[in-house]
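Section 3.1 - Work completed
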Amino acid sequence: MPESAPATILVAEDDNTQRTLYADILEQAGYRVLQASDGLSSIALAREQRPDLVLVDVTMPDVSGWNVVRQLRDDYTLGALKVIMLTGLAESFDRDASIAAGADSHLTKPIAPVQLLSEIKRVLRL
Protein backbone atom coordinates (compact mmCIF):
# COMPACT_ATOMS: atom_id res chain seq x y z
CA MET A 1 0.00 0.00 0.00
CA PRO A 2 1.63 3.32 -1.05
CA GLU A 3 2.16 6.00 1.55
CA SER A 4 0.20 9.19 1.12
CA ALA A 5 2.04 12.34 0.12
CA PRO A 6 3.23 14.51 2.99
CA ALA A 7 1.07 17.48 3.90
CA THR A 8 2.23 20.79 2.45
CA ILE A 9 2.60 23.64 4.93
CA LEU A 10 3.11 27.28 4.04
CA VAL A 11 5.13 29.20 6.65
CA ALA A 12 4.27 32.91 6.41
CA GLU A 13 6.68 34.69 8.73
CA ASP A 14 8.56 37.95 8.16
CA ASP A 15 11.40 37.11 10.55
CA ASN A 16 13.90 35.11 8.49
CA THR A 17 15.38 33.30 11.50
CA GLN A 18 12.01 32.17 12.81
CA ARG A 19 10.75 31.23 9.33
CA THR A 20 13.84 29.10 8.72
CA LEU A 21 13.54 27.47 12.14
CA TYR A 22 9.88 26.54 11.56
CA ALA A 23 10.71 25.25 8.07
CA ASP A 24 13.53 23.08 9.42
CA ILE A 25 11.31 21.61 12.15
CA LEU A 26 8.56 20.83 9.64
CA GLU A 27 10.88 19.35 7.02
CA GLN A 28 12.50 17.10 9.65
CA ALA A 29 9.00 15.94 10.60
CA GLY A 30 8.37 14.96 6.97
CA TYR A 31 6.23 17.86 5.75
CA ARG A 32 6.66 19.65 2.43
CA VAL A 33 7.33 23.31 3.26
CA LEU A 34 6.69 26.54 1.37
CA GLN A 35 7.91 29.89 2.69
CA ALA A 36 6.71 33.48 2.41
CA SER A 37 8.14 36.56 4.11
CA ASP A 38 5.13 38.89 3.93
CA GLY A 39 1.37 38.90 3.71
CA LEU A 40 0.93 39.53 0.00
CA SER A 41 3.36 36.83 -1.10
CA SER A 42 1.80 34.35 1.34
CA ILE A 43 -1.64 34.93 -0.21
CA ALA A 44 -0.25 34.54 -3.74
CA LEU A 45 1.69 31.40 -2.82
CA ALA A 46 -1.33 29.85 -1.08
CA ARG A 47 -3.48 30.47 -4.16
CA GLU A 48 -0.81 29.05 -6.47
CA GLN A 49 0.37 26.03 -4.46
CA ARG A 50 -2.78 25.09 -2.46
CA PRO A 51 -1.07 24.01 0.79
CA ASP A 52 -2.87 21.87 3.34
CA LEU A 53 -2.10 24.30 6.14
CA VAL A 54 -0.74 27.81 6.61
CA LEU A 55 1.27 28.92 9.63
CA VAL A 56 0.96 32.69 9.61
CA ASP A 57 2.47 35.35 11.83
CA VAL A 58 0.02 38.05 12.90
CA THR A 59 2.48 40.95 12.56
CA MET A 60 3.88 41.12 9.02
CA PRO A 61 4.69 43.89 6.57
CA ASP A 62 2.05 44.99 4.05
CA VAL A 63 -0.86 42.77 5.19
CA SER A 64 -1.41 41.51 8.75
CA GLY A 65 -1.75 37.80 9.36
CA TRP A 66 -5.38 38.34 10.33
CA ASN A 67 -6.05 39.97 6.96
CA VAL A 68 -4.15 37.16 5.20
CA VAL A 69 -6.54 34.67 6.80
CA ARG A 70 -9.60 36.74 5.88
CA GLN A 71 -8.49 36.95 2.24
CA LEU A 72 -7.77 33.23 2.08
CA ARG A 73 -11.17 32.46 3.62
CA ASP A 74 -12.87 34.77 1.08
CA ASP A 75 -11.31 32.75 -1.76
CA TYR A 76 -13.87 29.97 -2.22
CA THR A 77 -11.21 27.60 -3.55
CA LEU A 78 -9.26 27.91 -0.29
CA GLY A 79 -12.16 27.86 2.14
CA ALA A 80 -11.20 24.49 3.65
CA LEU A 81 -7.57 25.50 4.11
CA LYS A 82 -6.35 25.02 7.69
CA VAL A 83 -4.66 27.99 9.39
CA ILE A 84 -2.64 28.32 12.57
CA MET A 85 -1.76 31.83 13.72
CA LEU A 86 1.70 32.27 15.27
CA THR A 87 2.23 35.39 17.32
CA GLY A 88 3.90 37.06 20.23
CA LEU A 89 0.51 38.60 21.06
CA ALA A 90 -0.63 36.69 24.14
CA GLU A 91 -3.80 38.43 25.31
CA SER A 92 -7.14 36.62 25.12
CA PHE A 93 -8.49 39.25 22.72
CA ASP A 94 -5.60 38.47 20.34
CA ARG A 95 -6.63 34.81 20.32
CA ASP A 96 -10.24 35.88 19.81
CA ALA A 97 -9.19 38.07 16.86
CA SER A 98 -7.36 35.13 15.26
CA ILE A 99 -10.40 32.89 15.54
CA ALA A 100 -12.73 35.67 14.34
CA ALA A 101 -10.49 36.17 11.29
CA GLY A 102 -10.97 32.49 10.45
CA ALA A 103 -7.93 30.76 11.96
CA ASP A 104 -8.30 27.22 13.22
CA SER A 105 -5.81 27.79 16.02
CA HIS A 106 -3.63 30.44 17.68
CA LEU A 107 -0.20 29.71 19.20
CA THR A 108 1.80 32.21 21.21
CA LYS A 109 5.53 32.53 20.57
CA PRO A 110 7.92 31.18 21.61
CA ILE A 111 6.60 27.81 20.50
CA ALA A 112 8.34 24.56 21.41
CA PRO A 113 8.80 22.27 18.40
CA VAL A 114 6.81 19.48 20.05
CA GLN A 115 3.92 21.90 20.68
CA LEU A 116 4.00 23.14 17.09
CA LEU A 117 4.02 19.63 15.62
CA SER A 118 1.28 18.47 17.98
CA GLU A 119 -0.96 21.37 17.05
CA ILE A 120 -0.37 20.81 13.33
CA LYS A 121 -1.40 17.16 13.69
CA ARG A 122 -4.48 18.17 15.67
CA VAL A 123 -5.56 20.80 13.14
CA LEU A 124 -4.89 18.51 10.16
CA ARG A 125 -6.54 15.65 12.05
CA LEU A 126 -3.60 13.30 11.47
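Second construct:
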Amino acid sequence: MNDNQNISFIMPAYNCADTIVESVESIFKDNFEQGDELIIIDDASTDKTLETIKSLQKKYPEIKTVSHNINKGSAAAGRNTGIDFSKNELIFCLDADNILAPNSIYPLKSHMLKNKAEVGAFGELRYFKKDKKEINHKWIFKKNQVELQDALTGYYWPGPSGNYLFTKKSWKISGRYEETLGGAYDSWAFGIKQLGAGFKIIILEDSFYYHRYGYDSTFIREENKVKASLVGLSVLIKFLPQINDSDIEYIMSSKHRYSWFENLEKKPIRLKNNKIGINGTLINYQAKKDTKDIIEPKYKKYLKSLKNFFK
Protein backbone atom coordinates (compact mmCIF):
# COMPACT_ATOMS: atom_id res chain seq x y z
CA MET A 1 0.00 0.00 0.00
CA ASN A 2 1.14 3.54 -0.69
CA ASP A 3 2.86 5.27 2.27
CA ASN A 4 0.38 8.15 2.00
CA GLN A 5 -2.11 7.34 4.76
CA ASN A 6 -4.14 10.53 4.62
CA ILE A 7 -7.73 10.52 3.40
CA SER A 8 -9.35 12.35 0.51
CA PHE A 9 -13.03 12.74 1.38
CA ILE A 10 -15.11 12.88 -1.80
CA MET A 11 -18.58 14.47 -1.71
CA PRO A 12 -20.78 14.65 -4.83
CA ALA A 13 -23.31 17.46 -4.47
CA TYR A 14 -26.49 18.17 -6.38
CA ASN A 15 -29.27 20.42 -5.03
CA CYS A 16 -28.35 19.58 -1.45
CA ALA A 17 -28.18 23.04 0.13
CA ASP A 18 -30.41 21.87 2.98
CA THR A 19 -28.23 18.92 4.00
CA ILE A 20 -24.63 19.51 2.93
CA VAL A 21 -23.64 21.68 5.90
CA GLU A 22 -24.36 18.91 8.41
CA SER A 23 -22.49 16.39 6.24
CA VAL A 24 -19.41 18.61 5.94
CA GLU A 25 -19.45 19.46 9.65
CA SER A 26 -19.45 15.75 10.49
CA ILE A 27 -16.12 15.43 8.67
CA PHE A 28 -14.35 18.48 10.08
CA LYS A 29 -15.67 18.33 13.62
CA ASP A 30 -14.05 15.06 14.69
CA ASN A 31 -12.92 13.12 11.62
CA PHE A 32 -10.38 15.31 9.82
CA GLU A 33 -6.58 15.03 10.17
CA GLN A 34 -3.82 17.31 8.97
CA GLY A 35 -3.04 16.22 5.42
CA ASP A 36 -6.60 15.11 4.71
CA GLU A 37 -8.72 16.94 2.15
CA LEU A 38 -12.38 17.29 1.24
CA ILE A 39 -13.27 17.58 -2.43
CA ILE A 40 -16.86 18.63 -3.17
CA ILE A 41 -18.10 18.12 -6.71
CA ASP A 42 -21.05 20.31 -7.67
CA ASP A 43 -23.06 18.55 -10.38
CA ALA A 44 -24.50 21.75 -11.90
CA SER A 45 -26.91 22.38 -9.01
CA THR A 46 -29.83 24.72 -9.57
CA ASP A 47 -30.49 25.62 -5.92
CA LYS A 48 -28.12 27.33 -3.46
CA THR A 49 -25.75 24.39 -3.18
CA LEU A 50 -22.78 26.15 -4.80
CA GLU A 51 -23.36 29.26 -2.68
CA THR A 52 -23.46 27.07 0.44
CA ILE A 53 -20.22 25.35 -0.56
CA LYS A 54 -18.47 28.70 -0.99
CA SER A 55 -19.65 29.71 2.47
CA LEU A 56 -18.26 26.46 3.91
CA GLN A 57 -14.92 27.11 2.21
CA LYS A 58 -14.54 30.33 4.19
CA LYS A 59 -14.84 28.31 7.39
CA TYR A 60 -12.84 25.32 6.13
CA PRO A 61 -10.19 26.41 3.60
CA GLU A 62 -9.16 22.76 3.21
CA ILE A 63 -12.26 22.25 1.06
CA LYS A 64 -11.59 21.98 -2.66
CA THR A 65 -14.39 22.35 -5.19
CA VAL A 66 -14.86 21.03 -8.69
CA SER A 67 -17.91 21.94 -10.78
CA HIS A 68 -19.45 20.01 -13.65
CA ASN A 69 -20.56 22.34 -16.43
CA ILE A 70 -23.58 20.14 -17.10
CA ASN A 71 -25.51 17.85 -14.80
CA LYS A 72 -24.13 14.32 -15.19
CA GLY A 73 -26.93 12.90 -13.13
CA SER A 74 -25.14 10.40 -10.91
CA ALA A 75 -23.11 10.32 -7.74
CA ALA A 76 -20.72 7.99 -9.56
CA ALA A 77 -19.68 10.76 -11.96
CA GLY A 78 -18.96 13.06 -9.03
CA ARG A 79 -16.99 10.37 -7.22
CA ASN A 80 -14.83 9.65 -10.25
CA THR A 81 -14.21 13.36 -10.81
CA GLY A 82 -13.30 13.87 -7.16
CA ILE A 83 -10.94 10.91 -7.06
CA ASP A 84 -9.27 12.12 -10.26
CA PHE A 85 -8.51 15.41 -8.48
CA SER A 86 -7.53 13.82 -5.15
CA LYS A 87 -4.00 13.80 -3.75
CA ASN A 88 -4.26 11.01 -1.17
CA GLU A 89 -4.19 7.25 -1.50
CA LEU A 90 -7.13 6.64 0.87
CA ILE A 91 -10.61 7.59 -0.34
CA PHE A 92 -13.83 8.00 1.61
CA CYS A 93 -16.94 8.90 -0.38
CA LEU A 94 -19.60 10.58 1.75
CA ASP A 95 -22.89 11.63 0.17
CA ALA A 96 -23.97 15.21 0.82
CA ASP A 97 -26.97 14.12 2.86
CA ASN A 98 -25.24 11.54 5.07
CA ILE A 99 -23.43 12.09 8.39
CA LEU A 100 -20.37 10.58 10.01
CA ALA A 101 -20.50 9.69 13.69
CA PRO A 102 -17.97 11.64 15.80
CA ASN A 103 -14.49 10.10 16.03
CA SER A 104 -15.40 7.24 13.72
CA ILE A 105 -12.90 7.56 10.87
CA TYR A 106 -9.67 7.03 12.86
CA PRO A 107 -10.59 3.56 14.15
CA LEU A 108 -11.84 2.56 10.69
CA LYS A 109 -8.61 3.65 9.03
CA SER A 110 -6.52 1.93 11.72
CA HIS A 111 -8.51 -1.29 11.37
CA MET A 112 -8.14 -1.30 7.59
CA LEU A 113 -4.41 -0.57 7.62
CA LYS A 114 -3.72 -3.04 10.43
CA ASN A 115 -5.33 -5.78 8.35
CA LYS A 116 -3.49 -4.61 5.20
CA ALA A 117 -6.83 -4.36 3.43
CA GLU A 118 -7.80 -2.21 0.46
CA VAL A 119 -11.41 -1.63 1.59
CA GLY A 120 -12.85 -0.94 5.06
CA ALA A 121 -16.44 -0.29 6.11
CA PHE A 122 -18.37 0.56 9.26
CA GLY A 123 -20.30 -2.29 10.86
CA GLU A 124 -23.73 -0.77 10.30
CA LEU A 125 -25.78 1.95 8.63
CA ARG A 126 -28.31 3.89 10.68
CA TYR A 127 -31.10 5.20 8.47
CA PHE A 128 -32.94 8.41 9.33
CA LYS A 129 -35.10 11.01 7.59
CA LYS A 130 -34.62 14.42 9.19
CA ASP A 131 -33.22 13.95 12.69
CA LYS A 132 -30.33 11.50 12.98
CA LYS A 133 -31.47 10.74 16.51
CA GLU A 134 -34.65 9.25 15.07
CA ILE A 135 -33.46 5.97 13.61
CA ASN A 136 -35.96 4.23 11.35
CA HIS A 137 -33.97 1.12 10.52
CA LYS A 138 -30.44 -0.27 10.45
CA TRP A 139 -28.37 -2.40 8.16
CA ILE A 140 -25.97 -4.53 10.22
CA PHE A 141 -23.28 -6.20 8.15
CA LYS A 142 -21.61 -9.57 8.33
CA LYS A 143 -18.78 -9.64 10.87
CA ASN A 144 -15.08 -9.50 9.99
CA GLN A 145 -15.15 -9.24 6.20
CA VAL A 146 -17.42 -9.31 3.17
CA GLU A 147 -16.52 -11.29 0.06
CA LEU A 148 -18.14 -11.66 -3.36
CA GLN A 149 -20.34 -14.58 -2.35
CA ASP A 150 -21.72 -12.50 0.56
CA ALA A 151 -22.72 -9.66 -1.77
CA LEU A 152 -24.63 -12.16 -3.92
CA THR A 153 -26.89 -13.34 -1.10
CA GLY A 154 -28.82 -10.09 -0.57
CA TYR A 155 -28.60 -6.33 -0.26
CA TYR A 156 -27.30 -5.77 3.28
CA TRP A 157 -23.62 -5.24 2.68
CA PRO A 158 -21.59 -1.98 2.40
CA GLY A 159 -21.54 -1.75 -1.39
CA PRO A 160 -25.01 -0.30 -2.08
CA SER A 161 -24.46 2.54 0.39
CA GLY A 162 -21.31 3.74 -1.36
CA ASN A 163 -19.99 5.37 1.83
CA TYR A 164 -16.88 3.52 2.97
CA LEU A 165 -13.07 3.69 2.95
CA PHE A 166 -10.94 2.29 0.14
CA THR A 167 -7.62 2.75 -1.61
CA LYS A 168 -7.19 4.54 -4.90
CA LYS A 169 -5.41 1.38 -6.06
CA SER A 170 -8.59 -0.67 -5.60
CA TRP A 171 -10.59 1.98 -7.50
CA LYS A 172 -8.21 1.87 -10.45
CA ILE A 173 -7.91 -1.91 -10.62
CA SER A 174 -11.68 -2.34 -10.26
CA GLY A 175 -12.29 0.00 -13.18
CA ARG A 176 -13.67 3.13 -11.49
CA TYR A 177 -17.38 3.81 -10.86
CA GLU A 178 -19.92 3.04 -13.56
CA GLU A 179 -21.47 6.42 -14.41
CA THR A 180 -24.48 5.29 -16.44
CA LEU A 181 -26.37 3.16 -13.92
CA GLY A 182 -27.81 5.75 -11.55
CA GLY A 183 -28.93 5.71 -7.93
CA ALA A 184 -27.83 2.94 -5.60
CA TYR A 185 -26.87 0.73 -8.52
CA ASP A 186 -23.65 2.57 -9.38
CA SER A 187 -22.51 2.04 -5.78
CA TRP A 188 -23.62 -1.61 -5.81
CA ALA A 189 -21.79 -2.17 -9.10
CA PHE A 190 -18.57 -0.60 -7.84
CA GLY A 191 -18.63 -2.76 -4.71
CA ILE A 192 -19.19 -5.88 -6.82
CA LYS A 193 -16.31 -4.86 -9.07
CA GLN A 194 -14.01 -4.45 -6.07
CA LEU A 195 -15.00 -7.84 -4.66
CA GLY A 196 -14.79 -9.47 -8.09
CA ALA A 197 -11.27 -8.10 -8.49
CA GLY A 198 -10.29 -9.90 -5.29
CA PHE A 199 -10.51 -7.09 -2.75
CA LYS A 200 -12.27 -8.05 0.49
CA ILE A 201 -14.22 -5.51 2.54
CA ILE A 202 -12.94 -5.47 6.13
CA ILE A 203 -15.73 -4.66 8.61
CA LEU A 204 -15.17 -2.64 11.78
CA GLU A 205 -17.68 -4.00 14.28
CA ASP A 206 -19.59 -1.73 16.67
CA SER A 207 -19.21 1.26 14.33
CA PHE A 208 -21.66 3.14 12.11
CA TYR A 209 -22.58 6.22 10.13
CA TYR A 210 -25.94 7.91 9.50
CA HIS A 211 -27.59 7.40 6.12
CA ARG A 212 -30.48 9.65 5.15
CA TYR A 213 -33.38 8.17 3.23
CA GLY A 214 -36.63 9.50 1.77
CA TYR A 215 -37.85 11.25 -1.34
CA ASP A 216 -34.89 13.60 -1.47
CA SER A 217 -32.26 10.92 -1.06
CA THR A 218 -30.27 9.89 -4.12
CA PHE A 219 -30.28 6.37 -2.73
CA ILE A 220 -34.08 6.25 -3.10
CA ARG A 221 -34.74 8.79 -5.84
CA GLU A 222 -33.02 6.82 -8.59
CA GLU A 223 -33.89 3.39 -7.25
CA ASN A 224 -36.67 2.50 -9.69
CA LYS A 225 -35.31 4.09 -12.84
CA VAL A 226 -33.51 1.00 -14.11
CA LYS A 227 -34.24 -2.69 -14.24
CA ALA A 228 -32.26 -4.02 -11.29
CA SER A 229 -31.71 -7.50 -12.65
CA LEU A 230 -30.48 -6.25 -16.02
CA VAL A 231 -28.13 -3.79 -14.36
CA GLY A 232 -26.86 -6.53 -12.08
CA LEU A 233 -26.33 -8.84 -15.02
CA SER A 234 -24.40 -6.18 -16.94
CA VAL A 235 -21.97 -6.01 -14.00
CA LEU A 236 -21.79 -9.72 -13.17
CA ILE A 237 -21.16 -10.69 -16.77
CA LYS A 238 -17.53 -9.64 -16.25
CA PHE A 239 -17.22 -12.16 -13.42
CA LEU A 240 -19.11 -15.12 -14.87
CA PRO A 241 -16.01 -17.37 -14.68
CA GLN A 242 -16.26 -17.07 -10.87
CA ILE A 243 -19.95 -18.02 -10.73
CA ASN A 244 -21.51 -21.47 -10.47
CA ASP A 245 -22.53 -22.77 -13.92
CA SER A 246 -26.10 -23.62 -12.92
CA ASP A 247 -26.53 -20.16 -11.39
CA ILE A 248 -25.30 -18.59 -14.62
CA GLU A 249 -28.03 -20.50 -16.45
CA TYR A 250 -30.52 -19.31 -13.83
CA ILE A 251 -29.77 -15.58 -14.13
CA MET A 252 -29.49 -15.76 -17.94
CA SER A 253 -32.76 -17.65 -18.42
CA SER A 254 -35.75 -15.82 -19.89
CA LYS A 255 -37.79 -16.84 -16.84
CA HIS A 256 -35.49 -15.27 -14.24
CA ARG A 257 -33.50 -12.69 -16.19
CA TYR A 258 -35.71 -9.85 -14.94
CA SER A 259 -36.23 -11.07 -11.38
CA TRP A 260 -33.08 -12.78 -10.06
CA PHE A 261 -31.80 -9.61 -8.40
CA GLU A 262 -34.91 -8.97 -6.33
CA ASN A 263 -34.90 -12.64 -5.29
CA LEU A 264 -31.28 -12.76 -4.09
CA GLU A 265 -32.26 -13.47 -0.49
CA LYS A 266 -34.43 -16.42 -1.55
CA LYS A 267 -32.07 -17.65 -4.26
CA PRO A 268 -28.47 -16.54 -3.59
CA ILE A 269 -25.95 -16.70 -6.41
CA ARG A 270 -23.15 -19.16 -5.71
CA LEU A 271 -19.52 -19.05 -6.77
CA LYS A 272 -17.71 -22.00 -8.36
CA ASN A 273 -17.05 -23.56 -4.96
CA ASN A 274 -20.83 -23.76 -4.38
CA LYS A 275 -20.39 -21.85 -1.13
CA ILE A 276 -23.30 -19.60 -0.20
CA GLY A 277 -22.32 -16.35 1.46
CA ILE A 278 -23.78 -14.56 4.46
CA ASN A 279 -26.15 -11.62 4.09
CA GLY A 280 -26.32 -8.79 6.61
CA THR A 281 -29.33 -8.02 8.78
CA LEU A 282 -32.13 -5.46 8.58
CA ILE A 283 -33.52 -4.14 11.87
CA ASN A 284 -36.63 -1.95 11.81
CA TYR A 285 -37.54 0.61 14.47
CA GLN A 286 -40.53 2.77 15.24
CA ALA A 287 -38.74 6.13 15.13
CA LYS A 288 -36.55 4.96 17.98
CA LYS A 289 -34.50 7.58 19.79
CA ASP A 290 -30.86 6.63 19.43
CA THR A 291 -28.65 8.67 21.72
CA LYS A 292 -25.41 6.82 20.91
CA ASP A 293 -24.00 9.61 18.78
CA ILE A 294 -20.43 8.68 19.65
CA ILE A 295 -17.96 5.99 18.77
CA GLU A 296 -18.43 2.84 20.82
CA PRO A 297 -16.72 3.10 24.27
CA LYS A 298 -14.25 0.31 23.60
CA TYR A 299 -12.62 2.44 20.88
CA LYS A 300 -12.35 5.67 22.85
CA LYS A 301 -9.11 4.73 24.54
CA TYR A 302 -7.43 4.32 21.16
CA LEU A 303 -8.35 7.70 19.70
CA LYS A 304 -5.53 9.75 21.22
CA SER A 305 -2.83 7.28 20.24
CA LEU A 306 -4.31 6.84 16.77
CA LYS A 307 -4.37 10.58 16.13
CA ASN A 308 -0.73 10.85 17.19
CA PHE A 309 0.21 7.84 15.07
CA PHE A 310 -1.31 9.24 11.89
CA LYS A 311 0.19 12.74 12.23
